[in-house]
Amino acid sequence: MEGRRRGATWNPVPAGGQRHGDAQGFHNERSLADAAGATASGTLAVTMSGFWPDRKVLVTGGTGFLGSAVRRGLASRSAGRVVALSSADYDLRDREATAQMFDTHAPDLVIHLAARVGGIGANQARPADLYLDNLLMGTYVLEEARLHRTPKTVMIGTICSYPKFTPVPFTEDSLWTGYPEETNAPYGIAKLAQLVQLQANRDQHGQNAIYLMPTNLYGPGDKFHPDVSHVIPALIKKCVEAHEQQAGHIVVWGTGKASREFLYVDDAAEGILLAAEHYNAGEPVNLGSNEEMPIGELVTTIAELVGFEGEIEWDRTKPDGQPRRRVDPGRAEKEFGFKAEVDFREGLARTIDWYRANRAEAEARTE
Ligand SMILES: NC(=O)c1ccc[n+]([C@@H]2O[C@H](COP(=O)([O-])OP(=O)(O)OC[C@H]3O[C@@H](n4cnc5c(N)ncnc54)[C@H](OP(=O)(O)O)[C@@H]3O)[C@@H](O)[C@H]2O)c1
After folding, report:
1. Which residue has the higher pLDDT, 157 or 28?
2. Minimal CA–CA distance to 270: which of 322, 333, 182?
3. CA distance 27 to 43
4. 32-219+262-292+325-342 adopts what CATH topology?
5. For 22, left (φ over 0), alpha (ψ -120 to 50), or beta?
6. What's the CA-to-centroid distance between 316 and ligand 1, angstroms?
7. Phi, psi (degrees; rounded to nearest 5) at 85
8. Band of the pLDDT at 49, cuts 50, 70, 90?
9. Given the DSSP bridges, would you call strands 259-264 and 292-294 parallel, antiparallel or unpaired?
10. Which of 169, 206, 257, 357 might form a disulfide with 328, Cβ 3.0–4.6 angstroms?
11. E strand or H helix at 75
12. pTM summary value
């Protein structure tokens, strides 16, 4: 089965500047072409300096790992009016609080990053929390953005929504061909529901919301506490501690045979900001690096960068997760010119350096 909204409505501005299929509503908003910064000569003619100073940008989850990178990206674009929020400001699982956030800040652009996320361990320990928290946050943010006539909302999905046995590379049209890998299905389905909601809202109400799916992220500022860490911070922490303690071996979950793609967090932020500037369609878009690495090779690379020379033992009683993950990055490049730039070894080295210099901060977050 294919994605159901391909080419249906609310197309991005085609060459020549004429839009097709605009849905109803949002009569008072800036026109889509203007919101996208598009010109009569085509879709990618945005001048960054023109786009960002004019807009009030609200970043939910703006204090998180990806949120911090998005804030760096906004600062480098000289975005003048940025509000970055955490759960302490508004609990977005609460409809009233979400409405209040929109009433108070009246954003022109919302980048919705707030979520409850974690690696396989967190997904196994708290599947119900990850399902409901993410479903509620996404549902309320999209709906309040609609009711407040917010000109544009950027929703962040996840490649955990892809079916367990999706052909590699994952193309966006494979999203609905099967059920996700069991360990992350509640999280993946809750996120995917937001794609359905935004496409339905686009069709029925003309709401301009877009949906991006970053692959596994890594980089400075990530969470290293074992309750919530993803594979790269978990492995870095393990190798750094083993190196310090001069341990003879480390134990790693799974078989090492599963493979993953990783995107440096500032590259992901760049993709999000390019999409905010240029992309205005309802079709989901992958953000990836187009490089895939077996976990076994990842462990040896991290061990080498850290200086750990002991043995690596595999705990095969623990799950591997999805067998392979790599997304097709073609749509992001075609639609808004995104291409990942940071070399993987270089990105890993920066992450290890950051972890060594910021241990307490890196391990503090347990949510
Ligand atoms: N990390 C990855 O590998 C990855 C990959 C693909 C997609 N994503 C997506 O990228 C987005 C950001 O992820 P991240 O890794 O940056 O996560 P993160 O570091 O855990 O940050 C999550 C942010 O959401 C906020 N938040 C959590 N619960 C909230 C609530 N109930 N109300 C309001 N705010 C709440 C947190 O605020 P507090 O800290 O104050 O609670 C924090 O600012 C998420 O949508 C995630 O699904 C992440």
Report:
1. 157
2. 333
3. 22
4. Rossmann fold (3.40.50)
5. beta
6. 30
7. -120, 160
8. low
9. antiparallel
10. 169
11. helix 65-76
12. 0.87
Confidence of residue 321 (pLDDT cuts 50, 70, 90): confident
Amino acid at 195: L
203 CB-side CA count, 13 A: 11
Q: For the chain, state the CA radius of gyration.
A: 20
Q: Whose CA is nearest to atom 11 of ligand 1?
A: 113
Specify the pLDDT at position 35. Answer: 35
Q: Whose CA is nearest to atom 41 of ligand 1?
A: 87
Nearest by Cα to 60 from 131, 126, 141: 141
Instruction: Give Cα separations from 289 to 163, 294, 314 (angstroms).
Output: 20, 15, 27
Q: What single-letter amino acid sits at 235?
A: L
- pLDDT of 48 > 70? The answer is no
State how far Cα 70 lies from the chain centre: 11
Selected catalytic residue, list 90, 140, 162, 187:
187
Is 80's pLDDT higher than 90? no
Q: What angle do CA 53, 57, 59 make, to 5 degrees?
A: 145
Residue 302 structure tokens: 């991290």
Q: How confident is the model at residue 219 (pLDDT cuts 50, 70, 90)?
A: very high
Residue 185 backbone phi and psi in degrees, to 5: -65, -45
The residue to mutate among 117, 211, 289, having the most atoms of ligand 1 within 8 angstroms of its beta carbon, is 117
How far apart CA 303 and CA 301 sit, in angstroms, is 5
